[in-house]
């Protein structure tokens, strides 16, 4: 059993509101949010790590490519533990590539590189970690999406209004790239 805390983001959380507190979280019991058709679960974030890294999972069904974006000051990793996820990335020279990641595969996106992903198999699971001088962006999921206590995927996709995407960069080191075209597979 885990302890519940109150944080500046939530009335109930299994994550302590300040760094320096050891804690444990049972499977799936981190701070959860629905965004698009996915369930994001945060297990460690800025509050716990003094904004040095975050650790989260993304579980989702086969779906559409998420909007292209970049993190100007944050490195991001994708580690697929089940299913399949296609990662699209553009390096700092403008070279685009994509890779299908399946269980056990790892992908790294340096800070500043545009990227997106598409879940290719139902019930895929990504373990994500982000770190860097830009801080952490894990609260982006519940800010743009919908915080939830549910353990499963949303019954209906949570799709933010287009104007909401413009409010994110000021707080979470996420810059959306509307109209960005991937010149790899559709």
From TrEMBL:
Q: Could you tell me which residue ranges the Cupin type-2 domain spans?
A: 61-121
Top-rank taxon: Bacteria
Identify the InterPro entries for this entry: Cupin_2, QDO-like, RmlC-like_jellyroll, RmlC_Cupin_sf
* Coiled-coil residue spans: none
PANTHER family this protein is in? PUTATIVE (AFU_ORTHOLOGUE AFUA_8G07350)-RELATED
Name of the protein described by the UniProt record: Quercetin 2,3-dioxygenase
